[in-house]
Each structure stands twice: as structure tokens, then as C-alpha cells.
Design goal:
Layout (H helix, E strand, L loop, with lengths): L1 E8 L5 E4 L7 E4 L2 H21 L10 H6 L4 H4 L3 E6 L16 H13 L4 H13 L2
Antiparallel strand pairs: 1-2, 1-4, 2-3
Helix pairs in contact: 4-5
């Protein structure tokens, strides 16, 4: 699932991100890319808290629906619209079978070892970085 985030830039500060579907959930950064990563982390953390509290998670609205929401007119006026993936940490790994070029696998294993990571952690971390910008 991807949720709409509104990215704002104030003249004297960095960027901020907010989620119309999750009031109070915000991210921030000095660059848009950093703000998108911060927003993805904030979204996952916010949803985890909602789940712990037994709250319902809203279905994501599309950009057109957010833009058409009259209650958000002021908030959306000067905002960049970005879709942020909800990547929840479910604390349980799932075993999968993939096919990969042997030399690429060697490079992955070497890079993982240099970072003190397992192959699985390295691949999950790389995928998370690509998915969140």
C-alpha cells in the first residue's frame, strides 16, 4: 500500500512531510530524498502504534482524492505530492526462493560481510532503500 504524503518547504527550514490519512504523522529532512525516507519510517512507526492500540488502518486515498478534499485545500496548496509505501516490520521473516546471478550473489555476500550483516538483512535493507526513495 502507498499513502499520499504532502511535502512542504518553508523558506527558513528544511522539508516537512505530512500524511492526510494519518493526522499527526510527520517526517522531516534537509532534502526531499531525506524527507521521503523519514516519512516512510514515520508512517511505519505510526501504523505500528495504531495496530498496538487496536485502531483501524485507513485505506489509502489516491492523489486525486486528496487534492479534491476541500478540508485539505490550504494544506495541499503549495505541497509536492509523493506516494510513500507502507512497509511494516512484522518481526517474522518469511523464507523465499530467488534466482540470482552467481557473481552478483558473491558481491552481495561480500558487501554484507563488510557491513556485519547477513545476506538476508543486506537484501532486505537494499530493497527497503529502493522502495522508500
Amino acid at each position: 500500500m502507498r499513502y499520499v504524503a504532502l511535502i512542504h518547504k518553508d523558506p527558513d527550514t528544511g522539508y516537512g512531510a505530512s500524511f492526510p490519512d494519518f493526522p499527526g504523522c510527520i517526517g522531516a529532512g534537509d532534502t526531499i530524498e531525506e524527507t521521503v525516507r523519514s516519512a516512510a519510517d514515520a508512517l511505519a512507526f505510526h501504523v505500528a502504534g495504531m495496530r498496538e492500540d487496536g485502531e483501524d488502518i485507513p485505506a489509502p486515498r489516491g492523489m486525486d482524492a486528496v487534492r479534491a478534499d476541500k478540508a485539505l485545500r490550504e494544506e495541499t496548496k503549495d505541497a509536492f505530492f509523493v506516494l510513500i509505501p507502507l512497509i511494516e516490520d512484522r518481526s517474522a521473516a518469511k523464507r523465499v526462493n530467488i534466482s540470482i546471478d552467481p557473481s552478483l550473489l558473491e558481491a552481495i555476500d561480500e558487501a554484507a560481510k563488510e557491513r556485519g550483516m547477513t545476506r538476508s538483512n543486506f537484501l532486505a535493507s537494499a530493497a527497503r532503500m529502493l522502495l522508500t526513495g
